[in-house]
Amino acid sequence: MTETLRILVGSKNPVKINAARSIFSLYYPAMTIDCQGVDAPSQVPDQPIGEDETRIGAENRVLYCQQYHQADFYVAMEGGAEQFSYGPATFAFVVIANNQQRVIGRSSNLPLPLSLYNALLQGKELGDVMDNAFNTSNIKQQGGAIGLLTNHHATRESTYTQALTLAMAPFLHPALYAKEV
């Protein structure tokens, strides 16, 4: 009988749950991965604007999961957007935690058309803006803006998977990441 690794994702979005499941399956192939999603409040707007707001949303989701649930790992992903000096872009922050440590990671940027970014500044969510622009339905639980804007060569899940892969490094090599006093 194989040992079970319990992963709790701070969202019910299947894209986020699948990304977390794939990463833990990759790093812990001998274990049974029990990966579940729960509604965890981000305590930031539905469409975070700026890196700080986006990161805080992911951190809050993990903290909620840790406070109200038991798991081996807690995971959250929060998508946001910002106007950088080189143009508007969307990205995500990821947080992975266990009882010993918490790691924050970030995805790469996807450039956004200014008209779409301006809709976000008016309080709309990126998924809804993309559904309207591309005549899709519930794209945020599918390929996301990333899928639509890259002609499906990348997806929301692939971007989360890459960010989570990188954020796992401190868990894989804890001695190298141990804080020096």
Describe the fold and architecture:
The chain is α/β, with parallel strands linked by helices. The chain is 41% helix and 23% strand. It is globular.
Short description:
GO terms for molecular function: hydrolase activity. With 181 residues, the chain is of the alpha/beta class.
Question: What is the strand and helix layout of this fold?
Answer:
Layout lengths: L3 E6 L4 H14 L4 E6 L13 H18 L4 E12 L2 E11 L4 E5 L3 E2 L2 H8 L4 H9 L9 H6 L6 H12 L1 H4 L1 H4 L4
Parallel strand pairs: 1-2, 1-3
Antiparallel strand pairs: 3-4, 4-5, 4-6
Helix pairs in contact: 1-6, 3-4
Pfam family, one: NTPase_I-T
GO molecular function: hydrolase activity
Cofactor: Mg(2+); Mn(2+)
How many strands, what sense, and barrel or not for the largest sheet? 6 strands, mixed
Low-confidence blocks of residues? none
CATH fold label? Maf protein
Specify Rg, calculated over alpha carbons.
16 Å
User: What is the string of SSEs from the N terminus onward?
Assistant: EHEHEEEEHHHHHH
Number of domains: 1
Overall geometry: globular
CATH C-level category: Alpha Beta
Helix tally equals: 8
| SS-based class | alpha/beta
State the separation between the terminal residues, measured CA to CA: 41 Å
Into which percent range does the helicity of residues fall?
40-55%
CATH architecture identity = Alpha-Beta Complex
What is the beta-strand fraction?
A: 15-25%
**Secondary structure tally: strands:** 6
Average pLDDT over all residues: 94
